[in-house]
Amino acid sequence: MQVNLRSFKQKVRYHQKAFKRYLGKIEKNPPRGLDTIAATIDAEVWKEIDCLSCANCCKSMTPTFTGKDIKRIAAHFEIKPQELKDKWLAFDKKGDDWVNVKQPCQFLNMENNMCSIYEVRPEDCAGFPHLKKKKMVEYIHVHRQNIEHCPATYRMVEKMMERV
To answer: What is the per-residue pLDDT across 11-26, written as a single tens digit (0 to 9) for each?
Structure first.
């Protein structure tokens, strides 16, 4: 399903506080079988959401780049890891992470919403939006942040609220 970002952002503004409150309750008192429920909902969500029609994560967020990510991406460009850092990354002392200097992501092709380094993309991107991580309760803080950026995360929480 095509994602209408304008409509999505309006829904987020309207429901964000309720969704975050709900996630807080789930975090404090997780229902029995939460990981199983999340896996079922994950499969449903991906039948409804087309990431390539959106790419809002790449437009409005930055992944964290691990040392392995930096080495792999630098090798892809046939440059030294330090050159990659100097050209595109900044060190976030608060998070103790390497992040993009600018948004949208420099590797996003804005014409088709595809990643130009998809095969070597950061692990953070490959796992995003982390919907069915084991021990979902340990990722509630991530989902709380992602609902305002990712229609798939938003839809997952919406479906959870309907069922749990």
So the answer is: 999 999 999 999 999 9
